[in-house]
Amino acid sequence: MKNIIKVKNGDDVVVINYDCLRQYHQDTNYAMLAITFKGLQGALKMFQNGILQRKNIKILSAHPGTGVRDAFEFVTRVVTNNAFTLDCTLPYATYNPHKQMGYYFEISNGNNTVNLTLKEGVLMPEFFEFFEKLQNKTATKKEINKFTDLKKSIEKKVLKKSPDKIFEFEVK
């Protein structure tokens, strides 16, 4: 599966490759970067024309992570365009027992909305155990390195899958 997304910027069609997004990302949240990219890839294809105008895209996210934010910003510019809303209290896909947030997103073009819910099991319990240690600042250097390796491993697996293997999509 090609890891590209197309969006319109004015009259131009912009082709965004995942590798460029990864270079843009300044953190190590590779798992959520890839997961969000694949979600966007699947969701954008569900709109009538398949290639949305960046200026018309609005996103509601239940996840505060930098991988999520960077993927949405790089592809759609919603943060810059003040079209990004974060609401960690949404009661959907709340798989992380250590923080109030969800793995749920809504992408809208002003006429239609696609809801994305991360499928259970995409992120394994080990992921959340490492997350808790980082949140509590009890992770050792070795555990931090293992978590980074795990995020890279999830990234590689996710990028090989089609979006419908990662997310449940609902068009509204």
Structure, explained:
The protein is α+β, with helices and mostly antiparallel strands. It has a single domain (4-171), classed as 60s Ribosomal Protein L30, Chain: A (2-Layer Sandwich). It is 37% helix and 20% strand. The protein contains five helices and seven strands, in the order ββααβαβββααβ. Strands 4-3-5-6-7 form a five-stranded mixed sheet, with helices on one face. Strands 1-2 form a two-stranded antiparallel ribbon. β3, α3 and β4 form a beta-alpha-beta unit. α4 (125-135) packs across α5. The longest helix is centred in the last third of the chain and has 19 residues, at 141-159. It is globular. The model has no long low-confidence stretch (mean pLDDT 95).
What's the layout of helices and strands?
Layout: E1 4-9, E2 12-17, H1 18-24, H2 30-44, E3 58-61, H3 66-76, E4 84-86, E5 104-108, E6 113-118, H4 125-135, H5 141-159, E7 167-171
Parallel strand pairs: 3-4
Antiparallel strand pairs: 1-2, 3-5, 5-6, 6-7
Helix pairs in contact: 2-3, 2-5, 4-5
How would you describe the shape?
globular
Provide the succession of SSEs.
Answer: EEHHEHEEEHHE
Number of DSSP strand runs: 7
The largest beta-sheet arranges its strands as 4-3-5-6-7
Q: End-to-end distance, in Å?
A: 26 Å
If you average the pLDDT, what whole number results?
95
The third-level CATH topology is: 60s Ribosomal Protein L30, Chain: A
Low-confidence stretches: none
Number of domains: 1
Query: What's the level 1 CATH class?
Result: Alpha Beta
Query: Structural class from helices and strands?
Result: alpha+beta
Radius of gyration, in Å, reads 16 Å
How many helical elements? Answer: 5
CATH architecture: 2-Layer Sandwich
Major sheet: 5 strands, mixed
Report strand %.
Answer: 15-25%
Question: How helix-rich are the residues, as a percent range?
Answer: 25-40%
